[in-house]
Amino acid sequence: MTEILSGTGITKSYGATPALRGVDVSVAEGEIVAITGPSGCGKSTLLHCLAGILRADSGTVVYRDQDLNLWSEAARSRLRRTEFGVLFQFGQLVPELTAAENVALPLLLAGSGRRDARAAALGWLDRFGVADLADQRPGAMSGGQQQRCAAARALVTEPRVIFADEPTGALDQLNGEQVLSAMVQVVREQGSSVVLVTHEAPIAAYADREIVLRDGVVDPTGIGVGA
């Protein structure tokens, strides 16, 4: 498979505390990679470095032959609105906007017209089984419904890579697996890659490959959350 994203020798510290201590990782086109490991091992920090949310202290993060560490914050932000999609644990929907408005937001920021953006948003809400909530605000939804809407928003631009940071961590097991199952089905259809951070074995099982972090480095034994 063709590599689309890689990190080499990634280090990141918060003050005097190292979070990543020389991590190597690669993601192929269409591949779902789970990053697992105990709490505090650097999983989310690695995802944020790969997504360009954080700039690594050293090492390289290469996306389609371009080192993102050399890009400006504005350029990396544009990338997250177009070719990257990001899904967080609590969805982070805008509470004042309806579901359709939340999902349409990335398209509007990229310059799409309101009518086209709403039509696309409705289509994605339907793919995640929440089209009937299009005109509801997040406060009127369950946690699982909110996360489905957040997944639709992360995918509405049809990104090449989706970054999912504990996307089911705020949900019960049934809702969590339903949300992830729906997301995996969609990304398989469109051939996107996924970087998935999780501490839950049933969620990691959806991935093609698992990378285990411990104390800021890749565990060479590869014994993950399902062990």
Automatic annotation (TrEMBL):
Q: Which UniProt keywords apply?
A: ATP-binding, Nucleotide-binding, Transport
Annotated Pfam families: ABC_tran
One GO MF annotation is: ATP binding
- GO annotation, cellular component aspect: plasma membrane
**Record Gene3D superfamilies:** P-loop containing nucleotide triphosphate hydrolases
UniProt domain ABC transporter: residue ranges: 5-227
Give the transmembrane region(s): none
Write down the superkingdom of origin. Bacteria
The record ties this protein, via PANTHER family, to: ABC TRANSPORTER RELATED, IMPORT ATP-BINDING PROTEIN
What is the name of this protein?
Putative ABC transport system ATP-binding protein
Q: Which organism is it from?
A: Actinoplanes octamycinicus
